[in-house]
Amino acid sequence: FRSMSSVNVTSRCMALHSLRRHTFPASQLARSASRGHRSFRVTASGLSLVSAGSNIPHPDKISKGGEDAWFVHIDQNGGGEIYLADGVGGFNEQGIDPGMYARVLTYEAAKAHTALAKNPLASPNPKKLIQVAQENTKLPGASTIVIIELLGTKLSAASIGDSGFRVVRDGKVLFASPPQEHYFNCPYQLGYEPLNKDVDLAIDAQEFEVPVQPGDLVIAGSDGLFDNIFDENIELVVSDALAKVAGAGALSAARAVSEALVVEARKNAEDPIFESPFAIEAAKAKAVGTAASSKQKGALGAFSALTTSVASAISGKKLGGKMDDITVVVGAVVATAAAKEDIIEAERVSNQMQKEADTIRKRATGEEAKTLRSVNLRQQMDFALSQEVSRKEAALKAEAEKPPEFSKLSIEKMDAPTVRRLLEERGLPTSGKIDRLRERLSRVKAK
């Protein structure tokens, strides 16, 4: 269980995308746009997902490990799951650590998998896990998430937002999950609905089924990866990393690829003249795609901003990577019977991550209690306000239904001094023409 930034979005946008379920044959090459616990079923699986992850926090968030979270699970029966979440960085401005929300969200998703897997009548599909996790993560903050599970010979996956995954076979990207955004740089994001009604919900999750075979690599990443590296470059990095560990086991391969990808993505994020996927999409949206460079402090930041500006002027393009937390989890698909040693080691790592996750979940309990108190207080205040509004509306209605104190006929017979005296006795204005005064007196209700 690891943590690491994300897009600066603090509120939900109008929903623009419909719910989709994606089922892809193995022969189909799917490309995204340029922007592009634990437990599982007790039945043995012929294939296993041996996974390892790496991340590099945003330079400003190194002290807390960033705001992404990831978790993997496998045991000797085979199969396996990957959980990856990206906390929405804009909450930092409100004094909230979105990384905590992301970490607890992945913990609760994996916990839900354990519980559902024990129920023969339940199906722990990834979308259901997202739903349960959202309901049980009772903290301020928001996050994107992607969950991937190997079931038999296919991947079952679901995602909210712009965290996603790729499937690589024979050095080529076979499948790429599309990002889910309301508009540019505004991804779908989960949150605790009683605390924030503007969050997206698990029902909005995209679902995927992708056939796989031994030798495939599953690459899950936060937007820090896909904002800074194209699928074609992912292919090159994967091939180079695998060549360097040729002959090593699946776990070593997964680890080498994940490390190589985060390094390459960070290198691109720091390059003010790199034509990144993020920069291209920013240009399409008529936005500035080099904000990360301009936000750097000191002489280096000024130089980077100047370099970017000059390069953009020369090329006519918006350039620059996007500085962010970068998290990559790589799962190697292997035949369970042929990878026992790797699976045992991966299970050991998984168990260690579980211990760390348990500690983090306990640490979040205090903040969760504060959140629940805030929610209860808000509900009490909302109820009191609604009661007061209802009381006032009832009083106004009762007042409106009262008969007038004086009939129009009796008022017409009154002389001006009498009308003024009656208005004065009732604390009403007495100046003006007599017709106006008679109308004012006619509106006086009987007590």
Verbal overview:
With 447 residues, the protein is α+β, with helices and mostly antiparallel strands. It is 41% helix and 20% strand. The strands form 3 sheets. Strands 1, 2, 4, 5, 6, 7, 12 and 13 form an 8-stranded mixed sheet that branches. Strand 4 and strand 5 form a beta hairpin. The longest helix is centred in the last third of the chain and has 37 residues, at 365-401. The protein is elongated and about 110 Å long. Mean pLDDT is 83; it is low at 1-43 and 287-316.
Helix proportion range: 40-55%
β-strand percent reads: 15-25%
Order of helices and strands: EEEEEHHEEEEEEEEEHHHHHHEHHHHH
Secondary structure: number of strands: 15
What class do helices, strands and sheet pairing give?
alpha+beta
- Rg over CA atoms: 30 Å
The biggest sheet, with number of strands, parallel, antiparallel or mixed sense and barrel status, is: 8 strands, mixed
- Structure annotation, total helices: 13
**Whole-number mean pLDDT:** 83
The general outline is elongated
**First and last CA, distance:** 70 Å
Task: List unreliable stretches of 5+ residues.
Answer: 1-43, 287-316
